[in-house]
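Researcher: Good morning. I'm working through a list of sequences from a screen, and I'd like to move beyond sequence-only analysis. For each chain I'm collecting a predicted structure so we can compare shapes side by side. This is the next one on the list. No need for commentary yet; just the structure.
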Amino acid sequence: MRRCFVVANVVFLCGIIVAKVSPLPAQDMALSQVLVDGEDWQLLGEGYKFTEGPAVDRQGHVYFTDIPNNVIYVIDTDGAIVLFAENTANTNGLMVGPDDRIYGCRNGDKQIVAYTTDGAMEVIVEGVTSNDLVVTSKGAIFFTDPSNGQVYYISPQREMRVVANEIHPNGVIMWPDEGTLVVTERDSLHLWTYRIESDGSLTNRERYYGPLQLRSDSKTPGSDGMTVDRDFRLYVTTRLGLQMFDPTGRLGGTIAKPHNGPMANACFGGKDFDYLYATCGDKVYRRKTKVTGVPYFLRAGEKKE
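Model: Good morning. Structure tokens for this chain:
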């Protein structure tokens, strides 16, 4: 397994020099640095059919989909859940952009769309199949197309092209500095990373995170959705639970699932982005953490090098 070493803001990855990235701490990162003693998963809502796509806005509210019921809900910072949108055409992955709109994979209509906070919808692109997406601080979009084994890029000017193939992609996320894209494959023991170039192209493909842990009754991890925290830890939902990796790609531990059903996706939310939210089958949970998430839209006003 090849790893990443950081010296003076330069990453040496498999003999390739990647400059202008944030320094990554290399020490071991245990779950004790993340989890709060005495805190467990808190059930927020149940009785759905299949929950997915948690996404946080700048106030800390978390949106999620109930795919078979064609609805999107929003959770306020106190944990109360209200209906946000109906007739959502099996919308799956969600992500809030720098314009405060909620972007979604509206796969039933083969569209990528964006919702304003009052529920009004705009179609971004049509004629695509999609599963999950991530929106950069500049308003660009990466989304996965498992059916055709591709990852797409949509520029801020809404020009779309394929940027990765020869993969069966599922979930997608970026590092906090937006310089690296991470993609899951449900049956792979590793997670893929790509360097994000200035034009949205993906280079330096690498089996970076892994190996993932397996349940005793499964030969594949079932890797699905992901989230990241401010210290570059990555969390991926699997059949076993929420597996946490440190910035060098090493497994730091697995957070047990709230219940034995499927765990589809996770994100950080709440007023201070210090709660982990998880969509799990017919339920939605959260738990308090010692760490915070890093929504990309908060970088929108920062000076980019």
